[in-house]
Write a structure and sequence with these properties.
Shape of chain A: flat
Strand content of chain A: 15-25%
Strand order of the largest sheet of chain A: 11-10-12-1-13
Largest interface: A-B, 15 and 15 residues
Radius of gyration of chain A: 21 Å
Number of strands of chain A: 13
Order of helices and strands of chain A: EHEHEEHEHEHEHEHEHEHEEHE
Oligomer: homodimer
Chain lengths: ~280, ~280
C-alpha cells in the first residue's frame, strides 16, 4: 500500500502555540488549579492528555474561583476576560495571534463608528469571541445571501472568521459595498486553511482512499472531509487509528492522509502505523 | 410628431450650482478680471454666454496675474489652488460638492497611509484633480482589467470619479481586495448619471428617433449617446437645434430628447422648438 501524507496536515501556527503553552503551564508545579476556558483546541485527544496532567476544561468561569485560566486558541469573549480579571485569576492568553488581530480590528472599527459585519458561522466560538469586541451594531453572515438581508448603513466594516474561504469574504464585501457609502474590509483570513484544503484536494484525486484525521467537533476537519469527499468518495473522517476499517482498503493500492488544524502529530503517526499494520507500508 | 422629453435631462446639481455661481460673479461690476480655470462646465454654449459677460476661459494660471478665478465644476488640482492663492488671486470655488468630497477622501486616506486607486479615465479633468490630492502612491484604473495589473499592497483605498458606473467600482474593489490586507472604499459615485442613463434607455426603446443634447467635449453626453445608440440606431448627438437633420424624422412618429449634465435648459428648449418647427409638436 502506497501512503501519501499531506505536508500541511495537522497543527497550524495558532494551535501549535496554544498547545505548547498549555502543556508548559501544566508542567509547572508552582500553580494551584489550572483550567482552560472551553477546550484549548478542538481535539478531544489533546484535551484528554492535558486532563491527565491536571488541566481541567471549564465551560464557564462560574466553575472556578481561584488559580489560573488558559484562554483557548479560538479566543473567548471580551466579557469573559473582564470577568477572569475581576476574579483575580491568573490569565494565560493562548488565543491565536491571527484571531486576536481580528478581535482588535473589530474593536477599532467599531469605535470609529463602523457598523460591523463578521463573515463566519454564528455558533462558532471564534465568531462569538470576535463579535464580543464590537461596541456598536454587529451582524454575523455566513454567505452573500445572508448579507443581502442586511439593512443599508453609512459605514460598514467587514472582518472574517480566520478559517473562512476567500470567495465568501469577497462576495459579502461586494454586497456590503452596495449597502454603504463607505466600506472597510480587513482580510483576516489565515492562509493555513486554504493551503491545507488545496493540498488535500490534489492528494484525494491521486489515491484510492482518503483519511482525514481530526476531532469530530472540529469545523475545519469536517470541512476538509467534505472537500475530499467531493473528489474521492472513499474518504473517511477519523479521530484515532482504532477507527480505521480494513474494508476501506479493499482493491485500493494507495491511501492519502491529511489532518485538521487541531490534530497533533502523534495522532497522525498512530494512524500511519495503523495503516502499516493492516496493509504493509510504502510511504510516498 | 410625439416628443418625449426625459425628466432627468440636463443640468445636474453640481453643474447648476457652478453655472449659477459663474453668472452671478459675471454680473458683479466691482471686480476686475474674472476668469474660469478651464471651461466652467463642458458646454461650449454656456462658456460662450459667459464670455459675452466678460468671463474668459484660461487653461493655465500663467495667463492671469490679478483678479478673480473661478474653479470649474470638475475641480482643479491641489497645486493650481495653491498657485492661485500664492498669486493673491480671489478664488471662487465652483467645484461640485460631490467631486470635492472625493478629493477630500483621497487626501485623508492618502495621509493615513493607504495606496490610492482611483476608478476613472486618466485624461478626465475631474480625475486629474482628484489624483492631485494623494500624498502617497496613486493609480488610476478604468476597469477591473486595469486593476489586475496593480502590484500587491498592504492598505488600498478606492475612490471613484463621480460619473463612473457602479459595476466598474464593484469589480475594481473585488480585484483590490485580493491584492491587500486592508481595503477601504468610498462610494463617491453620484446617482445623477445612472438615473439619467436608465431613463434615457427606456425612452430610446419607445421612440423612432432619439436626440441627445450636449457638448461634444462632454464625456457624460458622449456616453449617454452610446447607451441610446445600443437601443435605438436612429440616435444623434447634437449641441444645438441648428444641427437637427429633418431626414432623421422620415417615417418616424415619435422622438425622444435627453441631455447631458452640462446642457442648460435653454438649449433643450431650443431643440424642442426646432423639432416643432420641422414636424409640429405633440409633447409627451
Amino acid at each position: 500500500m502506497k501512503v501519501i501524507v499531506a505536508k500541511n496536515a495537522g497543527f497550524c501556527f495558532g494551535v501549535k502555540r496554544a498547545t505548547l503553552l498549555a502543556f508548559e503551564k501544566a508542567s509547572e508545579t508552582t500553580a494551584g488549579v489550572t483550567c482552560t476556558l472551553g477546550p484549548i483546541i478542538h481535539s478531544p485527544q489533546v484535551v484528554e492528555r492535558l486532563e491527565e496532567k491536571g488541566v481541567r476544561v471549564i465551560n464557564s468561569l462560574d466553575e472556578m474561583s481561584q488559580g489560573r485560566v488558559i484562554l483557548r486558541s479560538h479566543g473567548v469573549t471580551a466579557s469573559e476576560i473582564q470577568e477572569a480579571n475581576d476574579k483575580g485569576l491568573e490569565v494565560i492568553d493562548a488565543t491565536c495571534p491571527f484571531v486576536k488581530k481580528a478581535q482588535n480590528q473589530v474593536k477599532i472599527l467599531s469605535e470609529e463608528g463602523y457598523d460591523m459585519v463578521i463573515v463566519g458561522e454564528k455558533e462558532h466560538p471564534e465568531v462569538a469571541g470576535i463579535v464580543s469586541y464590537a461596541t456598536g451594531r454587529v451582524f454575523v453572515v455566513a454567505s452573500a445571501a445572508d448579507a443581502l438581508e442586511l439593512p443599508s448603513m453609512q459605514k460598514i466594516g467587514v472582518v472574517a472568521q480566520t478559517t473562512q474561504s476567500y470567495n465568501t469574504l469577497e462576495e459579502v464585501a461586494a454586497v456590503c459595498l452596495a449597502k454603504a457609502k463607505e466600506l472597510r474590509v480587513f482580510n483576516t483570513i489565515c492562509d493555513a486553511t486554504s493551503v491545507r484544503q488545496d493540498e488535500a484536494k490534489v492528494i484525494a484525486g491521486e489515491v484510492g482512499c482518503m483519511l482525514v484525521i481530526g476531532g469530530f467537533n472540529s469545523a475545519n476537519t469536517r470541512r476538509l472531509t467534505e472537500i475530499c469527499c467531493e473528489i474521492q468518495a472513499n474518504t473517511h473522517h477519523i479521530e484515532t487509528a482504532g477507527q480505521i476499517d480494513q474494508e476501506w482498503f479493499a482493491g485500493v493500492d494507495s491511501v492519502g492522509v491529511t489532518a485538521g488544524a487541531s490534530t497533533p502529530k502523534w495522532l497522525i503517526d498512530e494512524v500511519l502505523e495503523g495503516i502499516n499494520a493492516l496493509c504493509g507500508d510504502k510511504k510516498g
